[in-house]
Amino acid sequence: MKLSRRGWNNVIIFAVIIFIAVIQLPTLIKQKYGTTAPPVTLSTLLPAHAVIDQLILPEQHYIRQGDDWHIAGGEQTAHVDVVSHWATLAGTPVDEAMMTKLQPQLTQPRTVEIWLQAYEEPVRVTVYQLPQFWLLKNWQAQWLAVSVEPTYLFPSP
Prior knowledge:
Low-confidence stretches: none
Largest sheet: 9 strands, antiparallel
Mean pLDDT: 86
Helix content: 25-40%
Radius of gyration: 28 Å
Distance between the termini: 87 Å
């Protein structure tokens, strides 16, 4: 097959167009048919700008005295980080359908009381530990999934 100069120009032009199309094809397919995951929104465990006065864990009771934290009984605590962990804790909201699926795995709940300044009643948080994450019920009665180490929430005494 013998092509003229004009024929070879046409072949090169078509080859370049096909090359560009092949390069752009994955992007075009993703734009047209791809499913983009919705952005994950985090919900907080406590109200915004809440200041903790007391943190009552199953095995420890932290009390604020001025700027210092003490374990009930008077001794200075070395675990002041645990209070800030609870104050800033946020997680992924869990819907009712997922809660129904998780219900058989929910055993041995723990309850944590968090007394906040300017609130008459404490925030009572129900906590379940599952193999992959923690399940906590926040101040708005919404379930949150949080992935942290056990000592992050419940330090050993």
